[in-house]
């Protein structure tokens, strides 16, 4: 795990990002967060690709001081995986015209020019800055604000700062948009639990409902943090919401992550963009309990290996779609509503039973409440393994785990970061992930009452195939108490006497007030 000295912020110093967001949010005025999000994130993206372009330009200038033509040779940029930014789209041009009443039109023209010269960004960038509802003064002030991001930083550091700012802004917009606002964004600490548990170190990584791409960002960060090479993982994703797909493409481009992210409005169930591909790792946060997923048109799908999912709830369709796409040694982590662990309606109990008996389930994690922006529904993590008899995680050989399922109850972990939302700290994430690793590898795992339990299939059958961790982990051991019984009893009796006395006093006050109001008691 990364250094956890800054556990309350998940290892990142968010002061800079938070101050920047506050300043940007002040400029929003009466604009809805869902609209303003695209305005701000589009400009951050434009600043990012210009910074990378200018950094490459300086390199070329230093290497070829007597060849000015090479500075405008787009192949010299594309060869380094740097987007070509035409003259009129460069940040310096926009910054110089930030106070002009036509700044919105200039930004739109910049976005169009970038898309024209970079086919991978076709249809991705926002191009509505010239609309009357957008105040030109506000746009100019935003440009001035964003101009200071990563100013003077080295190229790699600047990319990381811009990436962190983009990710932080995504999270804040998810929180401010209300009930449905967070559907495009999975909280960072939840993603980190999944990534640290699965350790996507090498191979293909897939998300069939990828939202704004947070699973991929954290997967790449895992590889970097563990001294791996970014090119060791290949990323694939699908998203049915066009606006969210655009956010994902920009999010990954800001991070310099190359990925095959596809959009169609039918979604992964009805128009699977990768029907023949199988993946080493799958990480997904599907929409919870979707009732209108069109299941009646898919009754004959080959994906339903464990049973036909009910048309009124897509949870078990997602689990089986993901299972279907795993390689023979692949593993997956899936966020679902807690009801998925125990539901018996519409055949879900039978599908769960088939998955358990078929050795599809490796681990279940119950999460604390209030982690998500878009829902207060309690959530859990399902970890699937295509072959529990063996496997390798990074450089560790895994033991044969057939006949067992690990249950982790993490509901007591986390800390409140504001009035409504909780986060898991570095220590919390390490505790969950290390427990799973020790269990998978057979290296020092022990059941901890109230937190984790390695249950046999026989025990799971005894609980009627319900997978709620609380049923298995039991109660936490009571803390040792060295106070003698007589002393503790005297203390409790004295406290009880005080409470009786206070109760009598309050009763007298209430009677007096009622009499003053003319009521007899």
Automatic annotation (TrEMBL):
This is site-specific DNA-methyltransferase (adenine-specific). It holds the Pfam family N6_Mtase. Residues 158-481 form the DNA methylase adenine-specific domain. Keywords: Methyltransferase, Restriction system, S-adenosyl-L-methionine, Transferase. SUPFAM superfamilies: S-adenosyl-L-methionine-dependent methyltransferases. Belongs to the N(4)/N(6)-methyltransferase family. Residues 17-136 form the N6 adenine-specific DNA methyltransferase N-terminal domain. GO terms for biological process: DNA restriction-modification system; methylation. The keyword Transferase applies. It comes from Parathermosynechococcus lividus PCC 6715.
């Amino acid at each position: 795990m990364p250094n956890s000295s800054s556990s309350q912020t998940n290892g990142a110093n968010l002061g800079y990002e938070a101050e920047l967001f506050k300043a940007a949010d002040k400029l929003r005025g009466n604009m809805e967060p869902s609209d303003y999000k695209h305005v701000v994130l589009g400009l951050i993206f434009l600043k990012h690709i210009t910074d990378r372009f200018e950094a490459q330009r300086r390199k070329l200038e230093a290497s070829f001081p007597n060849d000015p033509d090479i500075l405008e040779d787009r192949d010299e940029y594309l060869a380094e995986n740097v987007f070509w930014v035409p003259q009129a789209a460069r940040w310096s041009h926009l910054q110089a015209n930030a106070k002009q009443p036509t700044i919105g039109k200039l930004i739109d023209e910049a976005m169009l020019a970038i898309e024209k010269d970079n086919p991978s960004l076709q249809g991705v960038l926002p191009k509505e800055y010239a609309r009357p509802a957008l105040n030109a003064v506000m746009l100019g002030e935003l440009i001035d604000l964003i101009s200071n991001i990563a100013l003077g930083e080295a190229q790699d550091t600047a990319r990381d700062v811009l990436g962190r700012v983009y990710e932080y802004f995504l999270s804040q917009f998810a929180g401010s948009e209300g009930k449905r606002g967070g559907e495009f964004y999975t909280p960072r600490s939840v993603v980190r639990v999944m990534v640290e548990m699965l350790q996507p170190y090498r191979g293909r990584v897939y998300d069939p409902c990828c939202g704004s791409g947070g699973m991929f960002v954290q997967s790449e960060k895992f590889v970097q943090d563990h001294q791996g090479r970014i090119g060791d993982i290949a990323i694939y994703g699908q998203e049915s919401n066009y606006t969210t797909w655009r956010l994902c493409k920009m999010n990954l481009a800001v991070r310099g992550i190359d990925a095959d992210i596809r959009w169609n409005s039918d979604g992964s169930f009805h128009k699977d963009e990768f029907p023949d591909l199988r993946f080493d790792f799958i990480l997904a946060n599907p929409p919870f309990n979707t009732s209108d997923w069109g299941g009646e048109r898919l009754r004959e799908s080959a994906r339903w290996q464990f049973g036909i999912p009910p048309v009124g709830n897509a949870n078990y369709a997602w689990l089986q779609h993901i299972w279907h796409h795993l390689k023979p040694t692949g593993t997956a982590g899936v966020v679902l509503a807690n009801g998925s662990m125990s539901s018996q309606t519409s055949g879900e109990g039978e599908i769960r039973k088939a998955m358990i008996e078929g050795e599809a389930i490796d681990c279940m994690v119950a999460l604390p409440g209030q982690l998500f922006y878009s829902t207060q529904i309690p959530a859990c993590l399902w970890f699937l393994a295509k072959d529990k008899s063996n496997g390798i995680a990074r450089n560790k050989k895994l033991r044969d785990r057939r006949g067992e399922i690990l249950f982790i109850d993490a509901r007591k972990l986390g800390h409140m970061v504001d009035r409504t939302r909780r986060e898991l700290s570095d220590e919390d994430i390490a505790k969950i992930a290390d427990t799973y690793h020790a269990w998978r590898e057979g290296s020092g795992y022990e059941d901890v009452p109230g937190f984790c339990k390695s249950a046999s299939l026989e025990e799971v059958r005894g609980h009627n195939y319900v997978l709620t961790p609380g049923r298995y982990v039991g109660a936490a051991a009571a803390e040792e108490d060295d106070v003698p019984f007589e002393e503790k009893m005297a203390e409790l009796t004295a406290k009880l006497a005080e409470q009786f006395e206070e109760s009598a006093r309050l009763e007298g006050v209430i009677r007096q007030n009622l009499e003053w109001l003319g009521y007899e008691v």
